């Protein structure tokens, strides 16, 4: 395999190597030219003393445009002042593809750019080590999520994203044309992962896109997000909450273990949260918000301003539990002793919701009743309801937004920073 800049160490000193990459910078000192080559993993200094290298090559290197793609062959020399402590004196300097000028976006970050301009030119923006690092960490998060659930005996599945029914009512749906019929993009794999409990899978994991026609523009909503979903049979909300907090801790541990250099590029520190996470009841949460001046009635969803008040008293990750049954989707199980309250939870990080979950209703008739009570038509849930009639085990699960988790773990100011090509009300390209 070819070497990245980060693979080069003392063992290579005095040896000839080949590097591929982009021209990050050219520094022309007259009799001496430095070309900074950038690849996925870092930088290398290519040093061309006029007197010591081929003349034609010297001219080519000196005039090469920034962001051109190059191949360099040369001998590695120790050089304290260069990135990673080495330089390369080239015997070959090949321009594989010359970049146009001027550049649509500065990769060196010498000129600051607005988020919109950056996203318009995302392929350039992603060349910045600081930005690329986010996606290297996101990769490790996905890897550790799969690792964690594989160890716990989960089956990873893929369910349809083109569906005929709304998961939780109609407002946030994207309708599409499906031959002669209307169909929708799936808001969540909820109905399918529950159906798989009836299928006897017992523990499933799905990592996939969810689509929400959120009208408003916020720093935490996208119209296409990636959701980590689990569903587990023969357990309750507490059972899946412990998977969730252990997972979150595991992810943070693995990011720390495997992403040291990428965290350095971002200048971020990832603190490993202690488990178990604090459980704050919905009642207590409302109490805090009220005390701080929020106008809120019992039963209301917690607004962003309420959550910001609550976050003043809650550090890092915590759960808000026991939500009013009315405020949660129809499939949430009410408490036996107090059906106004449900066996539900949200995982929070400060004011940001990261995940929502619940013990589910597994009793057919109760489910039909709850669907009707929420103003939905049980007839449109045909395939789903059938699964509850012939042996549905008790079960629980949750859905966690991966993009939100990346945002929280790395303390990013906007969810769009955590996504390669974000989709929002204004943005469908690139
Ligand atoms: P919010 O109240 O923040 O809009 P929600 O309660 O509508 O979120 P859920 O239906 O509970 O969202 O979805 C489970 C998880 O999926 C959320 O906790 C969040 O992490 C993620 N998620 C949901 N909608 C979006 C979205 N529009 N953009 C990004 N992530 C989302
Ligand atoms: Mg939620």
Describe this structure in words.
There is one protein chain. By secondary structure, this protein is of the alpha+beta class. The protein has two domains: about 5-95, OB fold (Dihydrolipoamide Acetyltransferase, E2P) (Beta Barrel), CATH 2.40.50; about 125-420, Bira Bifunctional Protein, Domain 2 (BirA Bifunctional Protein, domain 2), CATH 3.30.930.10. Helices cover about 30% and strands about 25% of the residues. The strands form three sheets. It has an eight-stranded mixed β-sheet, with helices on both faces. The protein has a five-stranded mixed β-barrel with strand order 1-2-3-5-4. Strands 7-9-8 form a three-stranded antiparallel β-sheet, with no helix packed on it. Strand 14 (about 345-350) and strand 15 form a beta hairpin. The radius of gyration is 27 Å and the shape is elongated. It binds adenosine-5'-triphosphate (ATP) and magnesium ion (MG). Adenosine-5'-triphosphate binds near residues 214, 353, 355, 356 and 403.
From the structure above, extract its key features.
single chain; binds magnesium ion; 27% strand; alpha+beta; BirA Bifunctional Protein, domain 2; five-stranded mixed beta barrel; 430 residues; 2 domains; binds adenosine-5'-triphosphate; OB fold (Dihydrolipoamide Acetyltransferase, E2P)
Tell me, what's the shape?
Answer: elongated
- Radius of gyration, in Å, reads 27 Å
Distance between the terminal alpha carbons, to the nearest Å? 32 Å
Average predicted confidence as pLDDT: 96
Order of helices and strands: EEEHEEHHHEEEEHEEHHEHHEEEHHEH
Give the strand line-up of the largest sheet. Answer: 6-10-11-16-15-14-13-12
Number of strands: 16
> Remind me, CATH topology of the largest domain?
BirA Bifunctional Protein, domain 2
């Amino acid at each position: 395999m070819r070497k990245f800049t980060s693979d080069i160490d003392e063992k290579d000193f005095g040896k000839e190597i080949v590097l591929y990459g982009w021209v990050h910078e050219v520094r022309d000192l007259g009799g001496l030219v430095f070309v900074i080559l950038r690849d996925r993993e870092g930088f290398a200094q290519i040093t061309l003393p006029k007197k010591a290298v081929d003349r034609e090559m010297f001219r080519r290197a000196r005039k090469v445009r920034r962001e051109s793609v190059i191949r360099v062959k040369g001998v590695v020399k120790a050089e304290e002042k260069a990135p990673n402590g080495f330089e390369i004196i080239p015997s070959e300097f090949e321009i594989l593809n010359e970049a146009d000028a001027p550049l649509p976006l500065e990769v060196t970050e010498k000129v600051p750019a607005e988020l919109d301009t950056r996203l318009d030119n995302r392929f350039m923006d992603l060349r910045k080590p600081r930005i690329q690092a986010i996606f290297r960490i996101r990769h490790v998060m996905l890897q550790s999520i799969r690792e964690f659930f594989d160890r716990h005996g989960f089956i990873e599945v893929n369910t349809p994203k083109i569906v005929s029914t709304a998961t939780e009512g109609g407002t946030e749906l994207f309708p599409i044309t499906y031959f002669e019929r209307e169909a929708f993009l799936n808001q969540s794999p909820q109905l399918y992962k529950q159906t798989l409990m009836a299928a006897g899978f017992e523990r499933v994991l799905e990592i996939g896109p969810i689509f929400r026609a959120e009208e408003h523009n916020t720093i935490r909503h996208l119209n296409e997000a990636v959701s980590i979903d689990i569903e587990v049979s023969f357990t309750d909300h507490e059972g899946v909450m412990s998977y969730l907090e252990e997972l979150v801790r595991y992810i943070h541990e693995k990011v720390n273990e495997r992403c040291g250099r990428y965290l350095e590029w971002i200048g971020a520190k990832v603190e490993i949260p202690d488990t178990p996470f604090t459980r704050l009841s919905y009642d207590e949460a409302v109490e805090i918000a009220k005390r701080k001046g929020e106008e809120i009635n019992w039963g209301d969803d917690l607004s962003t301003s309420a959550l910001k008040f609550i976050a003043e008293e809650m550090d890092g990750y915590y759960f808000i539990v026991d939500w009013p049954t009315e405020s949660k989707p129809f499939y949430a199980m009410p408490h036996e002793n107090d059906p106004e309250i449900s066996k539900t939870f949200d995982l929070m990080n400060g004011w940001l919701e990261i995940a929502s979950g619940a013990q589910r209703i597994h009793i057919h008739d109760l489910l039909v009743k709850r669907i009707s009570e929420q103003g939905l038509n049980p007839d449109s849930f045909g395939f789903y309801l059938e699964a509850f009639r012939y042996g549905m085990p008790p079960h629980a699960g949750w859905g966690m937004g991966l993009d939100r988790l990346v945002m929280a773990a790395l303390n990013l100011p906007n969810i769009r920073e955590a996504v390669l090509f974000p989709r929002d009300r204004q943005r469908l390209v690139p």
